[in-house]
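Comment thread on ticket #2218

A.B. wrote:
> Attaching the input chain for the structure job we discussed in standup.
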Amino acid sequence: MKKKYSIFNILKNTISNHEKWQKMWRSPEPKKSYDIIIVGGGGHGLGTAYYLAKEHGFKNIAVIEKGWLGCGNTGRNTTIIRSNYLWDESALLYDHSLKLWENLSEDLNYNVMFSQRGVLNLAHNEHDIKEIKRRMCANRLNGLDSRWIDTGEIKKLVPIMNTDNLRYPVLGASYQPRGGVARHDAVAWGFAMRADEMGVDIIQNCEVKGVRTKNGQVEGVETSQGFIESKKIGIVASGHTSILAATAGVRLPLQSRPLQALVSEPIKPVINTVVMSNAVHAYVSQSDKGELVIGAGTDGYNSFTQRGGYDVIEETIRAIVELYPIFGKMKMLRQWGGIVDICPDASPIISKCDVKGLYFNCGWGTGGFKATPGSANVFAYTIANDNPHKINAAFSLDRFETGRLVDEHGAAAVAH
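C.D. wrote:
> Ran it. Output below, let me know if you need it in another format.
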């Protein structure tokens, strides 16, 4: 039965003190075998299952998550969405995702709270100006809504910003009005609910310990609840993807590092857009609850812990207070870290591999959330057809052998 949310359902359930809402998804016991197994119950994994069922007709699918849905990077990011990347291949992928974001709440009949409040990328020196304008021109050639604005326009958008009395004065910025933020857990829940309605089994608290193969073909996965058979396996496990790949004899060119973020006490609305700065390495937006959502860069070492070093937080807060002196006496409520997997060219891997039936969606580094629906959509196509969609063809694993890298270190910039 399709679960719909409307003002009438809310009023109806008010009578029962909201105690009779249906569960959003089932909690089934795992079957012995599935046509397709997706490892990872975050936005990318749940979205992949959703599109496999909706667009490709698969029903016997399992999403296996070692914790609860969204407990990994989906629930540990700062929710920024944009598509203003440099190279054609990246712009095509991220704008495909942005277009899906724009109709995702309607598609899922679940409010993912997508707010197109715009994204600013600040320039603090001549190099920043040249790099950002180069990227902006490339964006315009690809039909993206990116434009250069001067300091006066920045002050109109963000009156509280200190643009000249700081170590790195603000000289201008690129501005993408269609960019913004969304609610991270709502994305996971929306995909999970609709995938469940189409028969997808969502199995939580079940850790995948390895991938079993035979004669170059996947046979299934070893889990904490026993072996589960499948001829197609998609791994979308963010920072732990390389570990699972190794169990199948596949070596991925990934580094896993902690990425930190923090939020402040709630205050009245003071910043109505997303502001990012690579030079001072910090970015900020304000949530619907009034909290400042502040992001930093990755720690300088590989690690699989969901926390990071305090030196990174210290540098980030120093930068934020310089840009926004008004925040100087605010209190931070909580801090957390996620484990991001980073490719040498700062672009993702959405690809099959030499092991038949094994597919990877990984290497998103610091920018995976913005690509959630687009990544899931093309990854589902790749699994269903055993060939890449034209949008993700450039992000195959063999680019590290051919040298056809998609270098996005500049556009990826500050972690986001």
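A.B. wrote:
> Thanks. Noting for the ticket: The CA atoms of residues 106 and 112 lie 9 Å apart.
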